[in-house]
Amino acid sequence: MLFQEFLRAPTRVATVTASSDALVTAMLAPHRLDGPRVVVELGAGTGRVTGALQGHLRGTGRHIAVEINPVLAERLADRHPGVTVVRADAARLPAVLGEHGVDRADAIVSLLPWAAYAAAPVPRLVADALAPSGTFTQATLRGFHLLAPARRQAEDLRAAFGSLTASPTVWRNLPPARVLIGREPH
After folding, report:
1. Contact, 53 vs 137, CB < 8 A?
2. Is the pLDDT of residue 71 over 90?
3. Mean pLDDT of the chain
4. List of residues 6+ apart from 78 with CB closer than 8 A
5. Which residues does the UniProt record annotate as the domain Methyltransferase (predicted)?
6. How do the domains of the chain map onto residue ranges?
């Protein structure tokens, strides 16, 4: 299904394969997910991260998953009834949170493609939506970090966060990836 949706809208679907367990683990490791947390997932796709987040939250807190693709959003809502699935563009993050009574998120996890970053100030929106102690993670494909869109993405994230680090390469993902970790939102 993911490959089919990628072929329909390659600039809006970030990849042709679902995230591996290893990448999902790397994406969630930087976050505190115990207790009643508010977690926002951007570009939820097929729900690989969604399922793992639900396992960590164990019925506590709130989980809002934002997915622009209508087919993927519907499938996600069917598979994860405990998650608030919102079919929207990540550029609408402030409005989405407001519509659901959320002031600030404790964690934001993103699988957004570069096209989303080109179309909206995603780093600024995310930093404004995070609690001061919140954490942001973004999966990014390894080997592409020297390309202009990846460099712009990293520059914008550095401007929005006091701390931006990268995980080691997750080789057990197709394609290999790493996770950018933003803390101390400005």
Report:
1. no
2. yes
3. 90
4. none
5. 39-111
6. 2-185
How many whole angstroms from its chain centre is CA 80? 17
Measured between alpha carbons, how far is 181 from 131 in angstroms, rounded to an integer? 15
In sequence order, the β-bridge partners of residue 107 are 39, 135
- Strand 84-87 to 161-166 pairing: unpaired
2-185: CATH topology: Rossmann fold (3.40.50)
Confidence of residue 13 (pLDDT cuts 50, 70, 90): very low
Q: How far is CA 127 from the centre of its chain?
A: 13
In the predicted model, is pLDDT for residue 4 greater than 80?
A: no
- List the beta bridge partners of residue 110: 42, 138
| Residues 112-144: tens digit of each pLDDT | 987 788 889 999 999 999 999 999 999 998 887
Query: Closest Cα to residue 182, out of 148, 142, 133?
Result: 133
CA 38 to chain centre: 14
What is the value of pTM for the model shown?
Answer: 0.90
> What is the token pair recorded at 67?
């997915």
